[in-house]
Fold these 3 entries.
Entry 1:
Amino acid sequence: MQKEIETKDPYQTRRLWEESHKPPNVSIHLDETTIDKFKAGYEEDISFQTHASDPAQEKDSWKAIDRFFKDEKGLLFFRDADFHARLCVPKSMQPSVMKEAHESAFESAHAGPEKLWSALSKKFYWPRMKKDVVRFCVTCDVCQKTKPSNFNRYGKLSPHSIPSQPYESVSLDLIVNLPWSEGFNAILVTVDRLTKHAQFIPTTTGLTAEGFASLFVKHIACKFGLPTSIICDRDPRWTSEFWRSVAKQLQTEMLISSARHPQHDGQTEIVNRQLETMLRAYVAEDKGSWSVWVPLLEHAYNKRVHASTGASPYLLLLGFEPRSPLDFLHDSTSDSSKTISRSTQSDRFVKTLGMHRESARRAIARAQVSQAKSYNKDRRTINFEAGDLILINPHSLEWVESRGEGAKLVQKWIGPFEIQQRINENTYRVRLGDNYPGNPVFNIQHLRRYIQSPREFGDRAALPELRALKPAREEYEVESIIGHKYDKKKRSTVYLIRWVGFGPSHDSWQTTRDLRNAPELLNEYRKRVGLN
């Protein structure tokens, strides 16, 4: 613990030794209670016990620099290599010092480990200080929930198995937030994963599981049979209730089930974007006419050659391209083909269709390898076990503060929650509790490991628990109305509500209909701010 002084000039060496043994002028402004805590902590901390009782050791060696010394109040100091005096902090006081520096808005304002270490190491000292500072920062509840992740995102792409025949596996998704058109405000998009054949089915966002079952039976089961695999998002409509409705409509008592993959589906998302792009080109003058264009755009989409298969969905599904007005300008059917027997034509058709589909499967496999290589380049693998604590990206949950004004200032992660079940390497079931009534199944890319603060760090700052957008209870009591704005999507005025028993962090925007049980408060507010 001591540093030897070596110079060529013995007189200079002696002067340095004398300077090193002079206690630096330090000024510590602590109350008597805190000073007593420091002194008591020195006696209990084995790292400082010896130095606290006899700070100057090896006094017989005039070349030795005394690293430790006491001031007149009995506080122990450590002299670093630059002769700076740093206050020694016993183990019992270390959490308080780190807490003061880390959580104070005036000091480091929840800075990272390096910045906190830089601030503390100039003034304080204890053994393994940097290691403790890092642990303190990475276990901070506020930091974990408010800071974006600088690490590579979790979850590598695991391509789905390639189907062997059309409509063996389908992906489903909804395009929502559309203007009303002929009684519809959404589009159900279905895509066959082998041929890429798509169906664009006008529907409504209020459709129940039974309603979706009707669309499924009409547009998929009755046309192409029941798929063995469905890839969809985490929409709660895709539950056992959906399959019971399908069985009921097919008038069968046999248990119908299918492998459901509740995860991000890039294929259908790409089709959604293409459909939205096509719609914009035709509904600019009348956005409420989109449902009229959907059947025509579905036909146009299925005539296009798909990049991953090298053929059009129609060719792979039907074995031919449906005739279009352009075909009447040039009939490509040769006279020689008309003389071939029907049996020969049939054999050739089946063989050609099989070749096209096999070629499509090989092309899809090559595309999947390329996509996985590109996707996984900046990804890392991580496994969660049942019982692990995690945080969830707020965009995956509907909660009050994630919408409207101030959305930029919401925390980056919500939780902690407990892992309930590992479904596959990229999908987990999370125990959300009653406060979040949504679907509990999440893709790993929306999760982040939560590190609990050790008991030795004591009580620390933590963000308050947030309330779901759809409350667990049927009704909350309105305390006051504190603001209003015009919601373009809802085309009406919404009001910012303060709830009885909740603070400002739980304020939420509600419609006039939501406030039907508080007419007096609503009328009083409208009168006060001059709303008609």
Note: Residues 342-376 form the longest helix (35 residues).
Entry 2:
Amino acid sequence: MQYLHGVLGPIINKVFEEKKYVELDPSKVEVKDVGCSGLHRPQTEAEVLEQSAQTLRAHLGALLSALSRSVRACPAVVRATFRQLFRRVRERFPGAQHENVPFIAVTSFLCLRFFSPAIMSPKLFHLRERHADARTSRTLLLLAKAVQNVGNMDTPASRAKEAWMEPLQPTVRQGVAQLKDFITKLVDIEEKDELDLQRTLSLQAPPVKEGPLFIHRTKGKGPLVSSSFKKLYFSLTTEALSFAKTPSSKKSALIKLANIRAAEKVEEKSFGSSHVMQVIYTDDAGRPQTAYLQCKGPNPRNAGPSRSSGQKGSRGPGGLEMPRDVCDAYE
């Protein structure tokens, strides 16, 4: 929703504040008086249509410019979804004759089901506190139609449907090029960006458990000592185990659950504590790593026998089996 507000908010607010009379359909034009006091004259239909076209071209141009600048602001989950959609459609419809098909697949969601509905009903998307009046609603509807024409890649069928939208064609054609460039950048993620995207997606997943824990990550084959543990704030989601200095820290380390190979309790003699578990995982380069997590002590309500006494471990997010007493300590 924040992304939607960033792109559409300024344009929607301007339409509401200006309250201009905008109409492109000649059959619906209302002629009104214009001029100074005592010098009123009827405004011609051609003048109404030209002024309306100028207003809509300005709004559409501003919207497309804002969209073009929003690649980095687009939520990671949206980018990942559109990337997969674009690639699958392009694989299914190869060849120059289907050049626009992957773009239309993306804009069918981006424009038809996201931007256009928000433009026509800004209150439902919390862009405005109140519904638009009849005049503003008509302006928003015409703007949404123009956005959809751009999303359809300006096909002959869309032009023929409402020929009176023709005055917007120069802006629509330019908008098609802008939108295709935007989508190309949106789905073109290099290896480093893809890893950053995976990290962002993991952090966006709702936490299952979170709170302070102590961690020691091995570097080489040095001795295991309790003083090497560092207190950090952990967040366990269905995608990853992340940890940072504070809950509000922007920088955080991440262990994706898909990369965890084992999680098991460590014998008390190793660190002098019975509440330590080791997590064996691979990093993004595929190298094996080990991290030790230490809890202060088990939750009295949930404390149970250790795995060594025959009690099976609990299943964490992603189906990962974890020692029962360590799981309890984390609760």
Note: The domain at 2-189 is CATH 1.10.506.10 (GTPase Activation - p120GAP; domain 1).
Entry 3:
Amino acid sequence: MAFQVSPGVNTSEIDLTNVVVSAGTSTGGFAGRFRWGPIEEVTLITDEDNLVDQFQKPDDNNFEHFFTAANFLSYTSALNVVRAANTTTTDAACPKNATAASGTYVNVQIKTSESYYNTYDDEQGGTAYAVTANGPFASKWAGDLGNTFKMSICPADRPSATLTGTADWAVSTGVYSGTGTLFGIELRVGDAISIADETGLHIVESITSNTVAKCFSTSSSDSADADGKVGTRQKRSVFHTLATNMKGTVAVTADSTTVTGTGTMFNR
């Protein structure tokens, strides 16, 4: 549209945009105080329910921050959220990780999952897990919400134990014969036992009585009989198995149902 305001002056409206970005495709960023979640780590939130899942519902101390983020998510589906918090752990107002009531730890704040794995998970190289002052358990994130959790411990189905009496084991037959033993009570088929001075573990195949059982060695180099040796039953758990108690390695090809083992005993 064009119209003449005065001689020699022309006003025109020209649309120089080819695409108008929809509000639903806009990506935003927000940093605020939240009750839960990782600290100083960017988390992509897709909707209001996801915001609650990651950072929990608001309270009297952070409702302004929460509803600001929620309002943006009411018309879009991408908001990068960062939880801001006091990270001076010696400050009484700093959010910390809750642990068991008997824990004597002080000033522990686990900011992110990466921090947890690198610092507290021994399987990932963390060493702080062994520090008594850190307590036996810790909530996933820092904050008072961690004080509302209950912990459950799932112990081994079969704890490790030294077997009663002594026993002989024959390489040629696999017969495990004991003196003063209680195989019928202390052992089950499938248990892994270690026999003093023997190589590798021995897996129980059958139990005939308290003094007679049969087991095979997991080591191909175990060629010596055992005479009057003490046996130790290894723990068994559906939740965790020590790498030292595993036999061999396996390989799986993508899109294949075949599992190939090296040093394994699938047929046993």
Note: The mean pLDDT is 82.
